[in-house]
Amino acid sequence: MSRLDSMLRRLTAQRDGLNWAAAQINDTDGDVLDMGLGNGRTYDHLRETLPSRRIWVMDRVLQCHPDSTPPARDFLQGEAEPMLQKLAEAGRMIALAHYDFGRGIKSEDIAEAARLSPLIEQVMHPGGLLISGQPLVGFKQIKGPDTIAPDRYLFYRA
Ligand SMILES: C[S@@+](CC[C@H](N)C(=O)[O-])C[C@H]1O[C@@H](n2cnc3c(N)ncnc32)[C@H](O)[C@@H]1O
User: Which GO terms describe its biological process (predicted)?
Assistant: First the structure.
């Protein structure tokens, strides 16, 4: 498969997964967390899909498209560890978390996701949903939408 085809499949799975998860949290109180602002594509999609939720977004740099710039009060700029600790101080209030850290080096991305998992767990509302491009540790893996191959995007419940 070409890298273009692979990227298209990843982005389609990401969008379908976010839409599916957003529809699942109707009965769960709480905010949304997007880990990895990047260009701001998933952040923009989440705020369009869930306009009544507060959407926190995290990244070590602010380098998104100008149209996707988050309000300063919702942007956690810094390394993931201290930013997750800061968010945890506000309580377990995340109903939906999207994990999109990583730079494409599989072994490093998997190790980082495993290292961050206990910190992510501390911000999750009981029963909250996580969707992730990398395997997370310590959560119950659940089946996502039928349209997404099980290894392409991963779904968990806190
Ligand atoms: C794949 S991009 C995110 C793409 C974004 N979700 C989008 O749709 O445009 C990953 C982002 O995560 C950030 N990142 C990766 N590891 C991080 C870490 N440990 N702490 C903070 N930011 C991190 C990078 O700076 C990068 O902008």
Answer: methylation
Candidates 152, 98, 92; CA nearest to 127 is: 92
Mean pLDDT on 55-75: 98
User: Is pLDDT at 118 greater than 90 in this prediction?
Assistant: yes
Output the CA 36–ligand 1 centroid distance in Å: 3
Q: Where are the beta strands (DSSP E) in 36-123?
A: 55-59, 75-77, 94-99
The response to whether residue 30 sits with its C-beta less than 6 Å from ligand 1 reads no
* Euclidean distance between CA atoms 67 and 40, whole angstroms: 8
Distances in Å between the Cα of 157 and the Cα atoms of 2, 6, 21, 69, 115 are 33, 27, 10, 29, 18
Each residue's pLDDT tens digit, 121-138: 999 999 999 999 999 999
pLDDT of residue 6: 87
What is the extent of the structural domain holding 21?
3-157
pLDDT of residue 150: 82
Contact 55, 74 (CB under 8 A): yes
Pick from 101, 110, 112, 115 the residue to mutate for probing ligand 1's pocket: most ligand atoms within 8 Å of its CB.
101
> What CATH number should be reported for the domain holding residue 22?
3.40.50.150
